[in-house]
Amino acid sequence: MSSTEAIVLAKVPRSRRRHPVAVWSSLALLGIAAFLVLFGNLIAPDATAQSILDSLLPPGSPGHLLGTDELGRDVLALTIAGAASALVGPVCVALGSMILGILLGTVSGYLRGPIDFIIGRWTDLLFSLPLLLAAIVVAGVFGAGYWMTVLLLILLFSPSDIRIVRAGVMEQAARPFVEAAQMLSLSKTRIMFTQVLPNVWSLIITNSMLNVAFALVAFSSLSFLGVGVAPGTADWGRQLTDGRAIMIDNPAAVLVPALLIIGVASAANLVGDWLGQNLTRTGRS
Amino acid sequence: MTDTDVANAAAADSRGPSATAQVAVTGLTIDGPAGVVVAPFDFSIAPGETLALIGESGSGKTLSAKAIAGLLPAGFSARGTIALSSATIELPATDAVWRATRGRRISLLLQDPFTSLSPVHRCGTQIGMTIDAATDRRLGRDERTALIVQSLAEVNLPADVARAYPHELSGGMRQRVAIAAALATDPELLIADEPTTALDAGNQGEILDLLRGLQEKRGMAALLISHDLGMVRGRAEHVLVMRNGDIVERGVTSSVLNSPSHPYTRALIEADPSITDRSATAARAASGGLGVGEADAVLGISAGTAAGAAAAVLSSDLVTATDLTKSFGDKTVLHGVSVTVGRGETVGIVGESGSGKTTIARCIAGLERETSGVIEFDGVALAPGRASRTPTQMQIVFQDPYSSLNPMINVGRSLKLALRVAGRPASDLAGLLNLVELSADFASKRPAELSGGQRQRVAIARALAVRPQLLICDESVSALDVSVQKQILDLLAKLRVELGLSILFISHDLAVVRQLADRVYVLRNGDVIESGQCHDVLNSPQHPYTQALVAASIHEAAAH
Fold it and tell me: Least packed by Cβ within 10 Å: which of A98, B19, B46, B81?
């Protein structure tokens, strides 16, 4: 395509190229989720307060819109307060693994040679670890804990980030503008992080949004297995475990957090895709 | 002459839609996001004949090709009718219609054989995919292989190319594979969009003659999209000249090229470098542009230095490369090559792709490490690699203006970075842009907003920002349209005189080297086979290979 046509293309309104409704509703859902993370504990300060007398009320009961669970905890309050625990971890996992990916992936892809080999074997090793088994073993050895799970997931998520950044960096590093930077005798670190990396951002951001979704599901699975989030804590994954037994009496106790997990994960996916496509757009020649 | 008149005249010339025509396109109009991009026009192509659509980039010629292939980018739509002997397509057509048409009745051959083939599939697989797509029944394994081998044989490639990946082939071979894939389905119409622009001179002729032969054999109509007038002559029966979405001239190729009636066609013919020579360029450079003093002020070179540099021309060597060899694994691409560039001198290195000319430039620049040999700069030997070199010694302007600028960084930031490296204030930016004849508002633009020629100007500005002693131009104009090419060559000629620059100019195009170089080296398979004053070498070549190159170049020039 000739450059002039590229310029004309750049003027096509962005909204016409994507599905704005899906993207906007995803952004809205993520916004609500973020609001719950920040203020959930203020809205529902005593979500974990038990009341045996009110146990197992169905949805729509007076004072308990979504009913209560076995221990008499209000499902709505529990869900609102559980957002923080369910979402902060995955976001930290995605960020941590993104940082590892950027550092190791860029170095690996740009410098190549022995350092690339070592980082490559390290990612192979991490790839070969089964997530759930590793989590259970780590919980057994070091004790189960929320932040321990975050650290473990960062480690287990990082190899795909490293590989993706590495591939992106390798593709960009072969292009003449990088050689033009070499002709200016810029340092390798500077070329890596100021010339090459900006061209890989769209990949990194897309991938990290996908990681939020994966980590959300992984966290819920771990909470469901009893590793990760301590029993009694307000957390969507925990609600799935606890609510499984009372599905007949109060289906909302399981369905509401489950739908929220699916919704937020899908929204993160969609927004990640959309961001990726639009960021690439500006970078296209 | 109005559009209707042109169309009528053309119809009278039996070039309008007619009963015998295999392919007739009527009322082709393309609408873009901001209105009509290509005004309605008609054409027809008889079986076995070629119609050339020429114009500069942005004229709408590629959009027209895409419209006929049903591949318009988002935001564009086409109107009109495409009548083939087997089907008639009313535009805009549905995806289902295009799937039945594209590849089967209409094939598209793209400009760049480096990107039009999938890098992860073997060439045979790719040809096989088009065969499968065009065949209604399921082919057996042996049957498909036989068809693939047959397609390869048609484009004069051996059967074992089917097992090769595109990166294992040369540019010319890749384009042959692309042709084999495009023709495997026996289309009625082939649209070739700048099919040889990315190839070097020797390959260009071969590919075009190959296409011509296949076309006559099959009675296939071809629409050849090009900016290259030399290519069109002798290879197309009729020609359409397009400018800003309008057909400004049409007719039989020889009459249009010999006696163009529209000023734009005349300008296109005059801009072609094969018919102008260096003295004319020099004269243009001397008469126009910035004054010497002004450019000195811009680049901060004192008049004394410039005069000194001018006086020192040819009196001492700036760069000497002696006995350079370079091997990539088992493959030796340079066999003891020696090249010298004097102060203020412009030296051309010519040769076909694969001759090693770019490797010489990259070794001198330190981007590639020579296997053996000595490179001296200003009398001091430089160790292989970038570490021993400083930015102010030399800078490169690369071939492809689309990838030599960082797409995520705007022009101003790129140039300021280069200025900072040389310890120059950021306020020199406007002067620097002015030097390459760009206005100051380009500083805030991203590369994606610029045309190829504008990008190449920015790349030159970036190279000159550090005030290098040597400017290496590695095929710096070969990816550009002729008229833009001329502007960039004029600019280089002007800067050379004004700044006392030494230039090492790498090109496969003799016409381009002839315009700029004082001395020339002819390279073949990693050896210098001839060298000397540009005028002598190109006017009375001694080596048979040089003679062949010059003859090919004169042939191209004579075509105008």
Answer: B19
User: How far is B504 from B347, CA to CA, in rounded Å?
Assistant: 5
Residue A185 contacts B where some CB pair is shorter than 8 Å: yes
Q: Is B403 on the interface with A (CB under 8 A)?
A: yes
Residue B262 belongs to some domain of the structure: no
Tokens of residue B392, six digits: 């102010």
Angle among Cα A273, A277, A281 to the nearest 5 degrees reads 170
Distance CA B224, CA B231 (A): 10
Instruction: Look at residue B328 and tell me if it is in a domain.
Output: yes
In chain A, residues with a C-beta closer than 8 Å to the C-beta of B57 are 2-4
Total-model pTM: 0.64
ipTM metric: 0.73
User: Over the stretch B163-203, which tens digit does the pLDDT of each residue have?
Assistant: 888 877 877 788 888 888 888 878 889 998 888 776 766 67
Question: In this predicted model, what pLDDT tens digit does every residue of B61-79 receive, in sequence order?
Answer: 888 888 888 888 877 888 9
CATH assignment of the domain containing A201: 1.10.3720.10
**Is B462 in Cβ contact with A1 (below 8 Å)?**
no
Please give the residue that has the higher pLDDT: either A212 or A63: A212
Gap from B560 CA to chain A (nearest CA, Å): 25
Write out the residue range of the structural domain in which residue B354 sits.
275-527
Which residue in B400, B409, B421 is closest to A184 by CB distance?
Answer: B421
Could you list the residue range(s) of the whole structural domain that residue A194 is in? 19-47+59-283
Q: Domain holding B481: CATH number?
A: 3.40.50.300
Q: How far apart are CA B346 and CA B476, in angstroms?
A: 14
Answer whether B400 sits within 8 Å of A179, measured CB to CB: no
Across the interface, whether the CB atoms of B408 and A283 are under 8 A apart is answered yes
Q: Which residues, listed in sequence order, are joined to residue B239 by a DSSP beta bridge?
A: B52, B251
Flag whether A7 is in a domain: no
Q: With beta carbons under 8 A apart, name residues in chain A contacting B466.
A: 184
Q: Are A126 and A158 in contact (CB under 8 A)?
A: yes
Structural domains of chain A, count: 1
Q: Residue length, chain A?
A: 285
Residue numbers in A near B400 (CB within 8 A): 176
Residue whose pair of structure tokens reads 């022995």 in the numeric block: A114
d(CA B223, CA A238) in angstroms, rounded, equals: 66
User: Residue A245 domain-assigned?
Assistant: yes
Q: Is B109 helix (H, G, I), strand (E, B) or coil?
A: strand
B33 falls within a domain = no
B367 Cβ under 8 Å from any chain A Cβ: yes
Within a domain: A140: yes
Whether B451 and A180 lie within 8 Å, measured CB to CB: no
Question: Order of strands across the sheet with B317-328?
Answer: B331-342, B317-328, B372-377, B380-382
